[in-house]
Amino acid sequence: MIFSTHYFSRYNAEPVLFSTPPAEHPGMIVVIPCYDDEFVFNTLRSLEKTKQPKSNVEVIVIVNSSTNTPASVIEKNRKIYEELKEKSKTSHYKSFRLFPAIIENIPKKKAGVGYARKVGMDEAVRRFSAIDKPQGIIISLDADTLVSEDYFVSIENHFKQNMKAGAFTFQFQHDFNPKLYSKEEIEACKQYEMYLRYFRLALKFTGFPYAFHTIGSCFAVTASAYTKVGGMPCRQGGEDFYFLHKLTPMTTIGEIKEILVYPSPRLSDRVPFGTGPSVRRIIEDGSYCVYNADLFLLLKRFFDCFDYFSESENVDLNVVPCEIIDFIGKEKLLEITGECKQNAKPGKSLTKRLFSKFDAFFIIKFLNSFTGTSNYPPMEITKAVRRLLEYYEMEENGDVYEAMLRLDLEKT
């Protein structure tokens, strides 16, 4: 039975996009959503310059627009698509086979980068299914992102060396090239990138087991794992976060610590949140405030209670921070912990089940519940990072200083 049969019978998908059969020995398929973005040609040139992996590579570009897309953008999209199509016909790119598609009049409710990414990844699954290759690698990339020369080789090697991993996230650094971007964009994006690293380090500090970056251009997944999790969600933003955290209970997600991608720091309104909108807001506001670092200390104290829940016959909520109890509710918290204790053995099994209940979505809701309150108000990013670093006892831990080493915090 083909591994994707159940997926396509259960989940809605666009019709087949390409009739051309997969290349001989395809191992990786890159998926790039493209909306109003001629920078995609720079991205493709960057892919062309990479070291060649052992397996063949295909690149799918999904040029997309919705029912309410301005006519000027639709026209620009069509020109981009026509140029992509011409390059695909003439074998312009030697390092990979290019497969461009254009989808227009997508209903407003589901249009966006998540839908475009899903369409491309679904097509990648079809192509791997045609040769019955469930371990085929689907790579997520954005149209405004450059890659390192080791991009394909590193991804291929990590999957081969870690057969249990169904996905990998990559390290990144925004492209702070002063010849391409303004000083304002670069300085604002440095603050945003500092936040991304701060958030991951803060999650790691709490003891949360799935502390990894969730960035659309910084992950790859096997075709099999993609289908098991139900595919990419059709969201206008944040689809990467939802997808990767839905994946955590089903497979191991590894980390490639090399910097493989260089996203653009430019401001934009293509998506409701992410780099572009954040850079715009930082420039407009003149500062950047983020989740209060003390909230992560509360989460750490809560997660530290999981060992106690495992060892104790009855759950005493006196050990749980009152802010957590106020957020969840005493009865609800007792109900959840009681259900977990009934259905999992003490130890790792119970801890894993508790984290499946108090997952990344719980964390975000908890953090957001303090937005606009006097308790634990948002902190300016550099102050938040410094506060977090104070919580780490071993300052020589290189991972702790990720934000400082990447962005030279002391000079910011």
SSE pattern, N- to C-terminal: HEHEHEHEEHEHEHHEHEHHHHHEHH
Task: Give the N-to-C terminal Cα separation.
Answer: 56 Å
The amount of helix comes to: 40-55%
Mean pLDDT: 89
Q: Radius of gyration, Cα only, in angstroms?
A: 22 Å
Q: Give the name of the CATH superfamily of the largest domain.
A: Spore Coat Polysaccharide Biosynthesis Protein SpsA, Chain A
Main sheet properties = 8 strands, mixed
Please, how many domains? 2
Question: What structural category do the secondary elements indicate?
Answer: alpha/beta
Count of DSSP-assigned helices: 16
**Counted beta strands:** 10
CATH fold-level topology of the largest domain: Spore Coat Polysaccharide Biosynthesis Protein SpsA, Chain A
Sequence stretches where pLDDT stays below 50 over 5 or more residues: 407-412
What gross morphology would you assign?
globular
- Spatial strand arrangement across the major sheet: 3-2-1-4-7-6-8-5
**What is the level 1 CATH name of the largest domain?**
Alpha Beta
Strand percentage lies at: 15-25%
Annotated CATH architecture of the largest domain = Alpha-Beta Complex
